[in-house]
Amino acid sequence: MRGGTSKGAYFLAADLPAEPAARDALLLRVMGSPDERQIDGLGGAHPLTSKVGVISPSADPRADVDYLFLQVAVDRPEVSDRQNCGNILAGVGPFAVERGLVPAGPERTSVRIRMVNSGDLATATFPTPGGRVDYTGDAEISGVPGTAAPVTIEFPPGEGPLLPTGNVRDTIGGIAVTCVDNGMPTVLVAAADLKVTGYESPRDLEEDLALADRLREIRLAAGRLMGLGDVSDTTVPKLTLLAAPRDGGAITTRTFIPVRCHPSIGVLGAASVAAGLRIEGGVGAELARLPARGDRVRIEHPTGFLDIESSLEAGPDGLPTARRTAVVRTARKIFDGTVFPRSAETGPFRSPAPCAAPASAPSPGGQR
């Protein structure tokens, strides 16, 4: 399925090995990693197209389904569960209805989702006319061609602090940063402080080796300050460079995961950026052009924009906390069938693994 501006394989948890190491070994083979082209699997040779969503019924009374996000590295034998993905999240509700985990309403369906990676909750609402998921519609999001049905995702306030370091600003290597977590640990940095404009193409920024070194230094230090420990082998926290908006939005962004520049911006990362812009004295507050009315914040990125509904309120300690966060995304079912991973060099998992396994059996002699 495509979820937002990402693409990934969605599985029922029951169709995968329960033991994490065996599960991850299988998913590496399914996606074709490690290989920069992922030529022998489903991956698309980029972190944004090498993702997995694992869905199961939830035991949490606040949720209908559990969603575990797994980032499958492209060129390394690595599967990480240390972050959420708000784009793949956009497909979780429709997938849950398709697989019978949640009954469809006659017109619209809301699915309550627990994000296993962080324990956070979200509610996805999407059209189901006649009790079936309808992926067609007129909602348009930057970075995706055409239009599709809108998926409205609302996030209740998280239990963790919006400012995980306890400070509106921190200084790392002489650079002012704001560390914010509104669903995705994110470090906000003024692009000009790193000797770039913030309007460069992702490719140009990725080729700037001096910039890569500075970003790595900031990310490692910020991870410790944010209570994430050693983040050298993870993709969080995200680093987002900020510049004044150019196309009518609130801010221009360039986001790194961790050193590759995102061609757009992740949903949860954008939620953290939007909240960060509303923090008085935070990095980016002087660059941002926030709307005079309403909660909508338009985040500009390399391929367009993403609108986030974001509002804050004062917490009991006087620090700001998120009051409301919502976003409209789209999703689409691309393929429904069975994936045949390459044979394992070792281990017992040699049989095909269902990938969004079809409700009906495959046709004889064929592969769904």
Neighbour order of strands in the largest sheet: 1-2-3-4-6-7-8-16
Structural class by sheet pairing and helices? alpha+beta
CATH architecture heading of the largest domain: Roll
Number of distinct helices: 6
Shape type: globular
Rg from Cα: 20 Å
The CATH homologous superfamily name of the largest domain equals Diaminopimelate Epimerase, Chain A, domain 1
* CA distance, first residue to last residue: 15 Å
Order of helices and strands: EEHEEEHHEEEEEEHHEEHEEEEE
Residues in helix, %: 10-25%
In total, the number of strands is 18
Question: Low-confidence segments, ≥5 residues, pLDDT <50?
Answer: 346-351, 357-368
Description:
- InterPro entries: OMA_tautomer-like, PrpF-like.
- This is 4-oxalomesaconate tautomerase.
- Residues 352-368 have a biased composition (Low complexity).
- Its EC number is 5.3.2.8.
- Pfam families: PrpF.
- The longest helix has 17 residues, at 209-225.
- A hairpin with a 6-residue loop joins β4 (65-72) and β5.
- The protein has 368 residues and is of the alpha+beta class.
- The chain is globular, with a radius of gyration of 20 Å.
- It has helices at residues 20-31, 86-89, 92-98, 202-206, 209-225, 267-277, and strands at 2-3, 6-12, 51-57, 65-72, 79-80, 108-115, 120-127, 150-155, 170-172, 175-181, 185-190, 238-243, 251-256, 296-301, 304-314, 320-332, 337-339, 353-355.
- The chain has two domains: 2-157, Diaminopimelate Epimerase, Chain A, domain 1 (Roll), CATH 3.10.310; 170-318, Roll (Diaminopimelate Epimerase, Chain A, domain 1).
- The strands form two sheets. It has an eight-stranded mixed beta barrel with strand order 1-2-3-4-6-7-8-16.
- The protein is 15% helix and 30% strand.
- Mean pLDDT is 92; it is low at 346-351 and 357-368.
- It is built from six helices and 18 strands.
